[in-house]
Amino acid sequence: MANKKALIEATALLIATASVVHSTNKAPPKVEAMSKVCTFSEAMKAVSSYAARLSSERLKAAISLSNLQDQLEATVTENEGTSDIKTVLLIQYLEKSSKDLLSASADATTSGIHAAAVCANLAGRVEEFVHLFYQMHNNAANSCIHKGGGRQHTDLACMATDTALKELTTQATDAPKPDVGGLYKAIAASGAALTGGGIDTCKIMDGQAGSNTYLDNHGGPKPLKFGHGMLTVTTDNSDITGANWEPNGKDDISKGAYKACGQALTDLATTETAETTKALAQAATKLLEDGEPQMQKIEIAKNAIHAGLPAEKVEYSTDELKTLHAALKAYRKDSIKQHKSMVLAHHQHIQATMKLNRTACDLGLKNPKPCEASDTTTDSQKKAEKECKTANDDKEACDKLEAQGCAFNEQDKKCELKKEVKEKVKKGSQETVNSKTTNTTGSNSFVINKTPLLLAVLLF
C-alpha cells in the first residue's frame, strides 16, 4: 500500500514538473515571422530618406523655375521690353510656381522631420526586440528565433552582422515612398509562420511565478510586450499564435500600435510636389541646358496664374520651346562673352596700374629720399653766423672774415653777421625754389622735391 502511495506521489510530481517546464519556456518565433517584422521596421526607417527626397526635389524645382524666369526676363529687357504674350504668361507662371513651392517649404519640411522622427523611433523599438531575440541563441536549449538548420543574420533584413543591427541611413535621391502600411498587413498574412517553432526553448519568454524571471505571475497571466507590442506574450503556458502578433485582426496600420508612423507618412505624402509643377520644373531644366535636350510641351491650365489668367489653357509646343531654348542659349553665350570682356578690361586696368607704379618706383630709386623738407633760410644763415662766431671777441680776426659778411659789433664786443648779408641769404634761399614745390602753410617756408611728390601722386 505504501509503495502504491509513493508511486502516485511520484507520478504527480513528474506531471507537475513537466507542466512547469512547459510553462516557463515557450516555443520561439519562427524566422519567417521575424523576417517580416524586420522588413516592416526597415520601411519605417526609410521614411527619413523619403522626406529628404521630397525636400530636395522641392528646392531644386524652385531654383530651376526661378532661374528660367530670370533669364526670360533678361531676354525681354534686351529686346527693349518687346515680347509675345505667351512668353509673358510663361514668366508669370514660373514666378507663381516657384513662390508656391517656397511658401509651402516650411510646413513641408516640418512634416518631413516629424515623420522621420516618429517612424525611426518606432523602428528602433521593433529592431531592439529582434536583436534581443536573435542574441538569445547560446545553445539548443535556449533559442528565441527558430529556423530549421539554424538561423543566420542574413535571414533578417534589419541585421548587419550576428551582433549588430543595420544603421539608419538617409539619402535624398531615388527614395520612393515606403510601403509601411502594406508591410504592416504582411505580418498578419504570414499565417502559420506566426506560431511558435520547435520546442519550448525561448527562456526570455519565461514568466512563470517562482521561476526566477523578470516578470512573475502575481496571481494571473499578464501580457509581456516586445517591440512596442509587435509581439505580446503572457506568463501562462499558452503557445504563441497569430493572436500574439501585431497586427492581429487589424486591417490597417491606422488601427494598430504603429498608427503614429502611418499617419505621419500620410501627412508627409500630401507635401509631394504636384505632377504639373514637376513637369514644369523638368522643362525648365532642359531650357537651361546648353546642349540640345529633348523638349516636351508645357501646358498652363486655365486660371493657373490667378482667376481669369490665363482665360483658357495655353500650350507651348516642342517647336516653340526649341525656338525659346535657342534664344536663351544665345543670351547665355552673349552674357558669358560680356563677362569675359569685363574681366579682360579689369585685368588690363590692373596691368596699367602696376606699370604706372613701376615707373614711380624707378623714379623713387633715383631719389631715395621720399620727402625732403628743409628751412633753407635758417640753414644758410646759421652757416654764415657760425663762421663769424669763430672770431668771437677778437676784432682783428673778425676783420679778416669781412669777405664772408662778418663785422665786429663795437657795442656788444663780438663778431657777427652783417645785417645786409642776412637779407641777401634770405633772398638767395627763396630763389632756389625754381625746381621745387613750396608749402607755405607755416611761419617758415618748407620745400619738397618734385620727384618724391610725383611718386606719392602715382602711388595714391
Automatic annotation (TrEMBL):
Intracellular or extracellular location(s): Cell membrane
Membrane topology (UniProt): Lipid-anchor; GPI-anchor
InterPro entries assigned to the protein according to its UniProt record, in alphabetical order: Trypano_VSG_A_N_dom, VSG_C_dom_sf
Biological processes annotated in GO: symbiont-mediated evasion of host immune response
Trypanosome variant surface glycoprotein A-type N-terminal domain span: 13-301
SUPFAM superfamilies xrefs: Variant surface glycoprotein (N-terminal domain), Variant surface glycoprotein MITAT 1.2, VSG 221, C-terminal domain
UniProt keyword list: Cell membrane, Glycoprotein, GPI-anchor, Lipoprotein, Membrane, Signal
Domain of life: Eukaryota
Annotated signal sequence range: 1-23
Main location: membrane
Claim: Repressor is one of the keywords in the record: no
Role description: VSG forms a coat on the surface of the parasite. The trypanosome evades the immune response of the host by expressing a series of antigenically distinct VSGs from an estimated 1000 VSG genes.
Protein name as annotated: Variant surface glycoprotein 658
